[in-house]
Prior knowledge:
- The protein is an all-alpha fold.
- The protein has 3 helices and no strands.
- Helix 1 (2-36) runs antiparallel to helix 2 (41-67) and helix 1 runs parallel beside helix 3 (73-157).
Amino acid sequence: MQDAFIAQQVHTFALTIMLGLLIGLGYDMLRAVKRYIRFSRGMQFIVDFLFWFSVTVVVFLALLASNWGEVRMYVFIGLGTGGIFYALILSRFCHSLMVSILERIVACWRFVTRPVRAAFRVIKAFGVKTRGVLAGCKKRARNKMEKYKIKINRKKKE
């Protein structure tokens, strides 16, 4: 009985270390995404809040599945140990790897969408020229209408 209880605690401790590592990995992913997407302060607060809320839910569900949701000191020690281990040893490598992967994804996205962006530029340029031509036609039409209006008004007065 006692051996099973200790084995379960060791299992939960190993699980919390892994959760600490995953939390660090998730945070590095968030940092890499924030490098390409500039958030306003309010939006950054919301994104950070959602990240930490989701981390809390994941840890809660993992503890619920592992040891019926009991929170003991070794849980905090395991989460801290995993997070510190990740930050000291794996963070620099994983963050640079994620940034390079995101750079490649962005480059591929730009390559794929280049024809669409070029088509939109042509359409926009055509729209600007058409708007200029139409504005000129409208101005000439108004001028002609004014001339006719003046002629009509003169005929009425005479």
